[in-house]
């Protein structure tokens, strides 16, 4: 299932949850029986953009399979003090804005609690009392990102199947210095027309054809049809030039003029 299909399925799932009636919840999700009864409830108090809310979660007991189950909400994340919208906003802010995890946590915390930077934006507002303040930490945002990354890693094969490709891609590497003086390079492949970024790879060097071969194989597993690629723009990395000339012989290679000028 491609990333587009998974996104559609996720939205459809949330819509179905939002539209479920009281009668729908009487049907046991485990055995399908409607021989159920209400079995108490509990209250949760998630933080949303409108502030802390109180939501009642109804439980049911199934006489058929002798198990209990709880109703679900499209607005909640199981086991979290923060609503679905907060999780999505934090991940989107970190990825789209390009901010650090610390700053993302600070912005989200300010918006939810009407505190900290909120007072800079609205100078005549008053910060809430300590018990009403939001205490979202960067480590919590980090866990959300890790969870999203692990889910994304499971779906790398065929991730971008069906995504339109122009056949014109750009490739480059970004060097990073790690602990103990070690260096690694992140190789990335981008569709220069649609802006789609194919899954990158981390390697020890960019002058090796093997390293660039890993990048193109990862893109192929994710759904890129290499037969439709007609052009690659890059700097003068010898490993990439060698790989394109030897393996992707039908692809035209274009040196990036900005690298040539510099």
What does this structure look like?
Helix 4 crosses helix 6. It is built from nine helices and ten strands. It folds into three domains: 3-45 and 52-70, no CATH class; 84-154, no CATH class; 168-261, Nucleotidyltransferase, domain 5 (2-Layer Sandwich). The protein is globular. Helix content is 37%, strand content 23%. It has helices at residues 3-19, 22-25, 84-97, 101-113, 117-121, 138-154, 209-221, 238-246, 257-261, and strands spanning 36-44, 47-48, 51-52, 55-62, 67-70, 168-177, 183-191, 197-203, 231-234, 252-255. Strand 4 and strand 5 (67-70) form a beta hairpin. The protein is an alpha+beta fold and 262 residues long. The protein has a five-stranded mixed sheet. The model has no long low-confidence stretch (mean pLDDT 90).
């Amino acid at each position: 299932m491609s990333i587009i299909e998974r996104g559609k399925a996720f939205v459809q799932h949330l819509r179905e949850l939002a539209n479920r009636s009281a009668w729908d919840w009487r049907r046991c999700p485990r055995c399908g029986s409607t021989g159920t009864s209400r079995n108490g409830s509990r209250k949760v108090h998630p933080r949303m953009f409108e502030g802390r809310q109180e939501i009642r979660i109804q439980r049911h007991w199934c006489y058929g399979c002798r198990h209990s189950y709880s109703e679900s909400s499209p607005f909640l994340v199981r086991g979290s003090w923060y609503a679905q919208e907060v999780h999505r906003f934090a991940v989107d802010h970190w990825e789209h804005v390009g901010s650090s995890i610390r700053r993302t946590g600070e912005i989200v915390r300010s918006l939810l609690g009407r505190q900290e930077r909120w007072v800079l934006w609205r100078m005549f507002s008053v910060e809430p009392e300590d018990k009403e303040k939001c205490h979202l930490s960067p480590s919590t945002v980090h866990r959300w990102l890790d969870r999203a990354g692990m889910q994304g890693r499971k779906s790398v094969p065929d991730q971008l199947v069906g995504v339109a490709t122009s056949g014109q891609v750009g490739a480059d590497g970004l060097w990073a210095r790690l602990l103990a003086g070690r260096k690694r390079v992140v190789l990335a492949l981008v569709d220069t027309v649609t802006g789609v970024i194919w899954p990158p790879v981390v390697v020890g060097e960019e002058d090796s054809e093997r390293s660039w071969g890993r990048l193109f194989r990862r893109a192929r597993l994710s759904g890129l049809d290499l037969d439709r690629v007609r052009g690659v723009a890059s700097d003068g990395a010898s490993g990439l030039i060698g790989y394109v000339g030897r393996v992707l012989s039908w692809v035209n290679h274009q040196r990036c003029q900005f690298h040539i000028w510099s």
